[in-house]
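Reviewer comment 2.1 asked that we show a complete input and output for one of the modelled complexes. We chose the WT7 case, as it is the one discussed in the main text.
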Amino acid sequence: MIKIKSLLDYTVSYEKSINSPENFWEEIALKFKWRKKWDKVLDWDFELPKIEWFKNARLNITENIFEKNIKNYGNTNAIIWEPNDPNEKSIRITYNELFDLTCQFANALISTGIKKGDRVIIYMPMIPEAAVAILACARIGAVHSVVFAGFSATALSDRINDCEAKAVLTSDGNFRGEKIIPVKNVVDEALENSKSVETVIVAKRTGREVKMKIGRDYWWDDIISGKPTVHEAEEMGSEDMLFILYTSGSTGKPKGVVHSIAGYMIYAYYSFLNVFQYENNDIYWCTADIGWITGHSYIIYGPLLSGATSVMFEGVPTYPHPGRFWEIIEKYKINQFYTAPTAIRALQVYGTEPIEKYKLDSLKVIGSVGEPINEEAWHWYHENIGKGNCPLVDTWWQTETGGIMISPLASITPNKPAHASLPLPGIQPIIVDSEGKEIHGNNVEGNLCIKFPWPSILRTTYGDHKRCKETYFSTYPGMYFTGDGVKRDHDGYYRILGRVDDVINVSGHRMGTAEVENAINEHSLVIESAVVGYPHDIKGQGIYAFAICNESSKTKENIETEIKNLVRKIIGPIAKPDFVQIVPGLPKTRSGKIMRRILRKVASKDVSNLGDVSTLLNPEVVDQIIDGAGLKTN
Ligand code: WT7
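Response of the prediction step:
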């Protein structure tokens, strides 16, 4: 049974997935197209870590999107593309057409010398070419690494250098609301510090003039011109790399999360089908950007492996008006709508008037992802968008998990506001205390770990396996540690409480505090800095930076603004601090560790119950920081 249709099915599937995981996943795997089947379903050791699913099998993921099913749904729309400007024509691409485009671009990539195993950076807006680029890489066995097109040149070049990418795919600009973002210029700047890149392919979108470097840069249209629209898929090993996706952690440098082909494919498909309860001919829309894992698993791979129609939106929720999402739902008669709490909260501000103009009765399922959804936003979304009768799937997962781990299955497992609820079949969550001891029973709280592999678990962090082990498999040996705190309520439903490490979740995007601090410390007048998150009405968490500057900064105006802009330049707009406070010192323990707990209190403007600060190396600094923030202790 692949598609779960009742609560009983769920219970039976879950039991089976725990009692005999190999049989459970093998049965699902048999539905796919393989060049050669596996010798063994699963080999694993979380200590190393080593995780291998469908050992020694051979396949190509795009054959499972195209060749496997094209006879059945070749004329179905694979992608419906909605442009930033509602007056521009939308584009519908059938599976047959997407197949041709993928093969043609695969041939173009090959013609530039890209081959199996090479890394290709995709730094593109939400245009159909981005989907084609991803699929074409998979077709030829090149490893794609999509970098969100809002990242800066420095962030882009760090990622290019980390994976020694051979090519960068980009566009002549991005339309985003009223703005045009000159991404090609960013690529040019990044490439001044990235020597591995031999080829840049530029899709035309804005028509703006860009510099093209002869021998390196090619227009997309020129390079595909005359290329055949057929291309035999490269035969890949099940554990070969499908993609790298960089994500922030508690240390300074983003890490390249590696996903391999077969396990990711099976889990993206299985989770998509079951969480959203997608049915043939439904129109599904996920508002994420392909630069994040949500875009990979639930705009591209999950839906396309299921023969679904996936809507891809170039723009932003409030352009040209705050009813844009609802207008699109009406326009395409969307059945499943998947977005982020931060978008919901941003739209909540405009009230219900922008919603009332549109018919939303096509909706069957609404979803949420990226951060804990607060109860108020949950109810607003459920009532005003779901009209009280659509299941709201609050899906908890991570870049590293590849697919949705804990979530209601629409209309099947019960909905509980602000609860991700129950694990999907195959997922074995465990709550541990700070010593790693399992906390049993209900109505308990602790750190969320997963104790058994699922097919789409990350395999390594690119070029640094030790880091993968340290980050995810060492805190609690023998388990995968998520970095999240969780509560299991009296009914056994999971509620994610947020990160327990030095990671902030800004608008559903992960930022490492160390990464932001490193950027701040680049300022010539900054001596030391500390960054914390604080509750933010729309973004979920905002970024608050404390910086110690040297004497000469005293005569300098606007150093706070300079610091903010520097972070924006080094990482990108999403990392720009909301506040910068210049402080005379940072509260340190006797071992020299910054006591962030105090800084978090100041940032959230709640300095009651600061706890005992007398053990600090420099207790006097606490009052100075509180004063500087314009707060008072009582
Ligand atoms: C972190 C992962 C998964 C794709 C988007 C973000 C938080 C994610 C939820 C949710 C509560 C959530 C967690 C997680 N998170 N979804 N439904 N409820 N928290 O991917 O950048 O890898 O971030 O996002 O803290 O660890 P990511």
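The first strand starts at residue 40 and ends at 45. We note this here for comparison with the apo prediction described in Section 3.2.
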